[in-house]
Design a protein that fits this description.
Elements (H helix, E strand, L loop, with lengths): L4 H11 L8 E5 L5 H11 L3 E3 L3 E5 L2 E9 L4 E3 L7 H22 L12 E5 L7 H11 L5 E8 L2 H8 L6 E6 L19 H14 L6
Parallel strand pairs: 1-2, 1-6, 6-7, 7-8
Antiparallel strand pairs: 3-4, 4-5
Helix pairs in contact: 1-2, 2-6
């Protein structure tokens, strides 16, 4: 049980200390992953970025991911029986939202390039891991040197699926309980992170981090 996301982030940072001083980019999944990502970036002296991706939900069950989009890429994992027209319309709609988020997070700084970097993807926990899997594939398309997934808690089967991905070089998961029902059950304080809080965390990390981008 973690008291809050800050504590979980500090504990993750301890497990990732071997990456301190290396060409690392910490990629947090907003909004819940940002407090943890900020803690890790601060500990490693690395730049903090946000994974601006959105899942494409099935037309009859939006929670069931059939793929995901970024501002430039698209990955489809289970499109059987879904029309091309639906996928194209959803892609356009989601990219409009991603453009708005991009402008919000990068109003004062350009995104950090991922090519050739060691990218640490961080979230506050995963349940099925389906959305994270397609997010990993989108990040892999930017040609990083290495992809590390770091989460405080996830069910064993989700960890196994993530670790089995060819794009993933390492998975750091602090707790992998068999009685997993939801991420929030492992936090005393799992209050949702607002857009305002997410932006404040991101911009504070940008000004205080001893970032390197070469």
């Amino acid at each position: 049980m973690y008291s809050n996301r800050d504590e979980a982030g500090n504990l993750l940072a301890q497990e990732l200390i071997k990456y301190k001083g290396k060409p690392v980019v910490v990629m947090a999944i907003p909004r819940g992953g940002l407090p943890l990502g900020a803690a890790v970036a601060r500990s490693l002296g690395a730049p903090l970025e946000v994974a601006l991706t959105k899942k494409i939900g099935h037309p009859f069950n939006r929670e069931y991911a059939i793929g995901a989009v970024s501002r430039e890429q698209i990955v489809l994992s289970r499109p059987e029986g879904v029309s091309r027209e639906y996928i194209e319309a959803e892609t356009a709609r989601l990219r409009q939202s991603l453009e708005e988020r991009h402008r919000m997070f990068h109003r004062n700084k350009k995104p950090v390039p991922l090519k050739g970097k060691q990218v640490i993807i961080i979230d506050d926990g995963i349940a099925t891991g389906n959305t994270l899997r397609v997010t990993i594939a989108l990040i892999a398309a930017e040609d990083p040197k290495k992809i590390i997934v770091a989460i405080p808690v996830a069910p064993p089967d989700a960890v196994e699926r993530i670790a089995a991905m060819s794009e993933v070089d390492e998975v750091v998961c602090l707790e992998s309980p068999w009685d997993f029902h939801a991420v929030g059950q492992f936090y005393e304080d799992f209050t949702a992170v607002s857009d305002k809080e997410a932006l404040e965390i991101f911009e504070a990390a940008a000004t205080s981090s001893s970032s390197f981008t070469s």
